[in-house]
Amino acid sequence: MQNNANWSRKMTNADPEFFSNLEKMQQPKYLWIGCSDSRVPANQVVDLPPGAVFVHRNIANVVAHSDFNCLSVMQYAVQMLKVQHIIVCGHYGCGGVAAALEDQQLGLIDNWLRHVRDVHHKHFNVLNKKLFPLSEKKKLDLLCELNVIESVKNVCHTTIVQSAWARNQPLSVHGWIYRLNNGIVQDLGVTISSPEDISQVYRTNEEDSNVEMSADEELQLLPSGEEEKVGVADGQK
Ligand SMILES: [Zn+2]
Fold first, then answer.
1. Which residue ranges make up the annotated binding site for Zn(2+)?
2. pLDDT band for position 84 (50/70/90)?
3. InterPro entries attached here (predicted)?
């Protein structure tokens, strides 16, 4: 409580209108979907003040199609606040992702981390190379990256995002990862800004629904090769 009183006084001293302006409305440009980890606070990581970022956080920055909490946050952010960027930000050394790599049961949370286990299963071959096996740390780092990338895709596959694109509302979805030991955010280079960037099977815009798949798009549905493109931040560690 004392911290709060000190902070409120400090902010008011710096700008007497700060809280009265914030009270009137919020116009954030960004929706942040991140991990609940106490070391990755959204506003501080990108050095933005209150009012600048709409935030949803959960363990391991999972975006699941059946999670109405996350979907509701996304809908409000996109339709009402008209954010222009959705940022999925994971972090290296994520405890949730690490737990999903382990064999032991932790209880209720195992049901949530099942989403991360599914990412592991989907990319099993690249994470468990027989010829040049990854160290445990590299494997965890790579799964942290892949988990962000899958969440980015899941955001784009929602009707919320696709309806925004159909309305020509500018909206980009980004995948970032944060490094705990230096505070640096890295862009994973998977930004998606239009339905053309996602697979045909996930496009829900009515105009598209009867379009036949092109050969290129059919090839994109095949699992082979996809694993080789991921891990884009690997070389920069
Ligand atoms: Zn985490």
1. 35, 37, 91, 94
2. very high
3. Carbonic_anhydrase, Carbonic_anhydrase_CS, Carbonic_anhydrase_sf
- Ligand 1 centre from 179 Cα, in Å? 11
Rounded to an integer, the average pLDDT of 79-98 is 98
> Catalytic residue numbers?
35, 37, 39, 91, 94
**Domain formed by 26-236, architecture:** 3-Layer(aba) Sandwich (3.40)
> Cα dihedral angle (35, 40, 41, 47), rounded to 10 degrees?
-130
Binding residue ranges: 35, 37, 91, 94
Sheet containing 172-179: which strands, arranged edge to edge? Answer: 53-58, 30-35, 85-91, 172-179, 184-187
What was the pLDDT predicted at 198? Answer: 84
* Ligand 1 centroid, distance to 124 Cα (angstroms): 21
Any residues with CB less than 8 A from the CB of 112 and at least 6 apart, and which? 58, 59, 60, 62, 96
Confirm if 33 and 56 have CB atoms less than 8 A apart: yes
Buried b (16+ CB within 10 A) or exposed e, 49-65: eeebbbebbbbbbbbbe
pLDDT on residue 222? 46
Give the pTM: 0.85
Tell me the pLDDT tens digit for each residue of 37-79.
999 999 999 999 999 999 999 999 999 999 999 999 999 999 9
User: Are the C-beta atoms of 148 and 176 separated by less than 8 Å?
Assistant: yes
Residue type, 184: I
Q: How far is the CA of 22 from the centre of ligand 1 (A)?
A: 30
- Is the pLDDT at 168 greater than 70? The verdict is yes
